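Batch 3, record 17
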Amino acid sequence: MKKIALIAFDALTDIDLFLMWDILARNRQDWQVQILGKSGTLRSAHGLLIDTHGSLDEANQADVVLFSSGKEGVPAAIADSEFMSAFRLDPARQLIGSICAGAFILARLGLLPEGRAATHPEAREALRASGVLPDDRPFMYHGNVATAGGCLAALYLVGWIVERLFGAEKRRDTLRPVLPAGQADVFEALIVSAIRQGAGCTA
Amino acid sequence: MKKIALIAFDALTDIDLFLMWDILARNRQDWQVQILGKSGTLRSAHGLLIDTHGSLDEANQADVVLFSSGKEGVPAAIADSEFMSAFRLDPARQLIGSICAGAFILARLGLLPEGRAATHPEAREALRASGVLPDDRPFMYHGNVATAGGCLAALYLVGWIVERLFGAEKRRDTLRPVLPAGQADVFEALIVSAIRQGAGCTA
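Prediction for the assembled complex:
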């Protein structure tokens, strides 16, 4: 049973947590997914209360660690030494990823040594200013560290995680239930293309 | 300022509420979106606590009423006379919609007189058994009542709502922030096509 940690914080972008959560929480045989945060209850950017399932340092023992995003939540999290110091992540033994502005956290944790990441279009210039080159793709990865940009690119990030852990068939089975009715083929093509084109540094 | 009500209930499919919520809650100028439920706190199918913003009967004064879904949540809601009797909806003055199994609620409320709806692929046979023909499209509408199937078809449902109320440019501006980075054109084509092809009864 793999352990998947979704990292949450106050003022996170609601869908950047809940889309990964919903896709992954449907499977209770192959993995356990938990929302981890600094406190027992967080508040999203749009004002929803979110109960967390464990503390941030539990991410250090997880097989997969995925950072959510938030225009105001990410800068606040990065400025919070208690938040940042909780992590002892290791790409040699963990799959690590981020959606949208979550890439800023990966950068600060030293997890983007190549200095390149996918992020939300509106965060590109701030990412560049922080010393990380914004990639043009909605999803990219280097080894075991992946970044995705634009909320629905969570499809590609989660798809990559599941395919890496359990293969392409499990990836299809995992994503199919959330795809628009009758459009599984269209979205399968988008997902496969994004994952295949996400390898390495050349766009 | 338009009022948009998202109808929630215990055991709802997490993303079927949160995707509509996140897309719509980003705009605070043109509309107010609220999650309405029978009680102050609900629990999602995957176990999240959801605080509601108002009671179900507030939907009767809303400009837009959108029903979420849930494999176990919808049958329980339909069997709950307190839930069902709260609604006095009127397609003559309201835009009304559902995602996935939410179509069963619309049918029971008498809002699908043509007897046809889009729903989640896994709910098609149950919909047929309940006397409503499952449509092949991910999104369809008749007049002011729309149904969508497959969680991400919420893009089409919400897009249709915003376009009906405020036009195509506002629809684009509303959906763009959640689309995968660099893929706005691909998704715009999918969204426009789904909305255009969603008109009326012929698939």
